[in-house]
Amino acid sequence: MDVQADWTDGAEALTYQCCDVCGEKWYFRRDFCPNCGSTRVVTRASACIGTVYAATVVVRAPSPEWRERAPYGLCLVDLDEGVRVMTHSEPGIDIGTRVRIGFLRTDQGVLPIAASTS
Amino acid sequence: MAWITGVGMTAFGKHTGSTTISLMSEAATAALADAGLERRDIDGLVCGYSTTMPHLMLSTLFAEHFGLQPRYAHGMQVGGATGLAMAMLASLVTDGGAARNILVVAGENRLTGQSRDMTMQTLAQAGQHQYEVPLGPTIPAYYGLVASRYMHETGLDATDFAHLAVLMRRNAAGHPGAQLRDPITVEDVLASKPIAPPLKLMDCCPISDGAAAFVVSADRPASNGLRIRGCSQAHTHQHVTGAKDLTAFGAKASSARALEAAGVGIADIGYAGIYDSFTITLAILLEEIGLSQRGASGRDVAAGRYGANGDLPLNTHGGLLSYGHCGVGGALAHLVEMHRQLTRRAGDRQIRSEPALALMHGDGGIMSSHVSIVVERMS
């Protein structure tokens, strides 16, 4: 398996996986294909461009650490590679907005954050 | 076919000094009395879970405390769907002959047993631990995402959601055990503070202390028995990021199979007990199940369809949105109220129609886990 570090490891990258046998693509890392069970899994880096599928703002934060940052946008982005991911978002994005996902270094770690491409 | 032979529940709200076990005991005592059974009659026990009292063996812990020595015991966890999943399990176990009288009980001091922050953080763990939870989400935020997409595709708007919240509050005003009983208007809901847009404070259920219980029996009781006619479940995903589509959920398949198992159609249903953690949850479930057309749930509520004396009375105790939400016991309260309505023991809240069939539906996770049950009053 071709493992690459992503934002959850502290790298400024967002990765997804594909099955070399059936072509299934997915986001949450695992060492087999959830569709066909094959272990021929390839990890790829995303180009981090996509379209917003759903969007909200966390106004009521879950803890004192997050309260310092609130309100913060949270969205689901359909990457152009065909995989859906959850990221933070800059103000002003909405469903259908074309976005580029960048990375913020914070006390909570590296966070992916979507901003409008226009 | 199994029978629901007795029900009981506590008031929901702030019960200072209560514990998971004390609340469960109070509801269990009431359910046994309602069923006319003694502890020695109970040979099965099904419990849920408690976030304020995580325990590996909650069912046997409760059995020892309450004074039961069942031949069957089981603790279950499927989030908000747990309550009805427990009812389905009790039905299967009695049908299978492993026990004859099963006590189903859940309760939690979720409001006073921990801080509000702790509750929000614990519940947010329903998210994916590596790719979602590190982003600082909350349960309202997961449902806010669902709501944004569902509104985009169906045309439902904030006013539609508000009608649902107002109906639940109006129902709760008639129940002395409800946590939130002050009347609210559509304008109040729309003006309430944002939590996770499009969801506002009054689109969200409160956090409560409380408990509910019932008894499922193999034998038909002398009176007040309701028969469990059909049950089904559907589990399509766990995480909001992993859902294929935020406008189509497992509720449709689950409820269709439960109705098919019962041999009845959706039009035969005369009472509905539907999970309502947020207004969006209730709107989606009404529409997915087919009780309202897509995008029409708010209009139907405004037109009176789901009122206590409308075509299809809904959550007449006030639901999670106003009776309150204490975790697993929250969804059981819908079943307790359904039992009282169908057996015509709801007092001042008694609905005028005399439905023979009720549909119950529960949702766990982020529209992830679904359980549907059709219940029939035998004349």
Describe the protein's topology.
The complex is a heterodimer of chains A (118) and B (379).
Chain A: E1 15-19, E2 25-26, E3 41-45, E4 49-58, H1 64-67, E5 72-79, E6 84-89, E7 98-106, E8 109-116
Parallel strand pairs in A: 6-8
Antiparallel strand pairs in A: 1-2, 1-3, 4-5, 4-7, 5-6, 7-8
Chain B: E1 3-9, H1 20-35, E2 44-47, H2 58-66, E3 72-75, H3 82-96, E4 101-109, H4 116-124, H5 139-154, H6 158-172, H7 186-191, E5 194-196, E6 199-200, E7 209-217, E8 226-235, H8 251-262, E9 271-274, H9 279-289, H10 297-302, H11 319-322, H12 328-342, E10 357-364, E11 369-377
Parallel strand pairs in B: 2-3, 2-4, 9-10
Antiparallel strand pairs in B: 1-7, 1-8, 4-7, 5-6, 8-11, 10-11
Could you explain the architecture of this structure?
Chain A is 3% helix and 45% strand. Chain A has one helix at 64-67, and strands spanning 15-19, 25-26, 41-45, 49-58, 72-79, 84-89, 98-106, 109-116. In chain A, a hairpin with a 5-residue loop joins strand 1 and strand 2 (25-26). In chain A, the strands form two sheets. Chain A has a five-stranded mixed barrel with strand order 4-5-6-8-7. The mean pLDDT of chain A is 95. The radius of gyration of chain A is 15 Å and the shape is globular. Chain A is mostly beta strands and 118 residues long. Chain B has 379 residues and is of the alpha/beta class. Chain B contains twelve helices and eleven strands. A nine-stranded mixed β-sheet of chain B has the order 3-2-4-7-1-8-11-10-9, with helices on both faces. A two-stranded antiparallel sheet of chain B has the order 5-6. The two termini of chain B are 16 Å apart. At the A-B interface, strand 4, strand 5 and strand 6 of A face helix 4, helix 5 and strand 5 of B.
